[in-house]
Amino acid sequence: MPDRDIKSPIWHPEPETVEDVFDHTYKEKAGPKPPSVIVWRNVFLMSFLHVGALYGLFLFPSASVLTWIWFFACLLFSALGITAGAHRLWSHRSYKASLPLRIFLAFANSMAFQNDIYEWSRDHRVHHKYSETDADPHNAVRGFFFSHIGWLLVRKHPDVIEKGRKLELSDLKADKVVMFQRRFYKSSVLLMCFSVPTLVPWLVWGESLWVAYFVPALLRYAIVLNATWLVNSAAHMWGNRPYDGSINPRENRFVAFSAIGEGFHNYHHTFPFDYATSEFGCKLNLTTCFIDFMCFLGLAREPKRVSREAVLARAQRTGDGSHRSG
After folding, report:
1. Helix, strand, coil shares of the chain as percentages rounded to 5?
2. Coil, helix or strand for 173?
3. Which helix (H) or strand (E) holds 96?
4. Is residue 131 situated within a structural domain?
5. Any transmembrane segments, and where (predicted)?
6. Which distant-in-sequence residues (6+ apart) come within 8 Å of 145 by Cβ?
7. Phi, psi (5° rounding) for residue 127?
8. Is 296 exposed, middle or buried (0-12, 13-18, 19+ CB in 10 A)?
9. Per-residue confidence (pLDDT) for residue 18, from 0 to 100
10. Are 117 and 259 in contact, with CB atoms under 8 Å apart?
11. Is residue 2 in a domain?
């Protein structure tokens, strides 16, 4: 397998970020795989959510214009809690955020309801370190359904649990915002994911409580979930691999659009510390634009970026030939 190092000081991982680098020494255990154990509670809850979301889609035309605006505002806010928050800030430490911005992103993350920041970041680091192996929480080798939603419907593979326990997570434990959210996560989800999206339209401009629950709450929640899951499934299966042809993650522009910038996945797995997750900056990457704006306001700082020379060298050495330098 090709060497993953680029001889550039910008690319070499810093000591506190080595947990994000793929571990070539990991070997899957020989013998039969452990049987999948279905978590029936999750199956029921996910089924209820998606049936409710479909009903919300049916109700969408009957919602007021203000409710439509609120729906999209909540969708963007909760998506940023994953992309700019749990993913780029806390999982990869690709930039630094002030306390007000971290609090903002923690509230947004609770609205997204995809596990607390600590657990999300831990599992994502395991995903990068052991991608497409038994230790990957949503191993795409097991198929689209498993990597999209199936991994949430069964017990984790024992290797996922074992490797997750061995990760260095002191940075997350030292962040008071992360640990506060983890301590009060259930309450914050009830407030941010369901109560606020439902009650604001009902109380402020008189939207039907029924419509407010099924549209800005359930439909919005299901859309953000599936947009995130597409990064684990579609972006690991369809698209080109211009930066590293030896790994599964792909450049998928549909996913980049739906997940506000998270679909440039071959680049991201090749250069996981780059805050932009793409060599194209803000193009099709609303999350990068948000981080840039936060830096302009002084609420974020020190965004990490891979040099153009390192990108071109990497593409030339290990890409699939689809990269264009123009």
Report:
1. 60, 5, 35
2. helix
3. strand 96-97
4. yes
5. 39-60, 66-86, 184-204, 210-231
6. none
7. -60, -45
8. exposed
9. 64
10. no
11. no
pLDDT in tens, 62-103: 999 999 999 999 999 999 999 999 999 999 999 999 999 999
pLDDT at residue 17, rounded to an integer: 56
Residue with token string 């990269």: 323
List pLDDT tens digits, range 221-261.
999 999 999 999 999 999 999 999 999 999 999 999 999 99
Residue in the structure block whose two tokens are 């430490």 = 93
β partners of residue 47: none
Place of tokens 């657990």: 119
Domain count, the chain: 1
Determine the structural domain holding residue 243 and report its residue range: 36-318
Q: How far apart are CA 213 and CA 215, in angstroms?
A: 6
- Note whether residue 21 is domain-resident: no
Please report whether residue 202 resides in a domain: yes
Q: Tokens 């259930």: give the residue.
A: 186
Structure tokens, 311: 């990108």
Structure tokens at 180: 């506060």
DSSP 46-84: HHHHHHHHHHHHHHGGGS-HHHHHHHHHHHHHHHHIIII
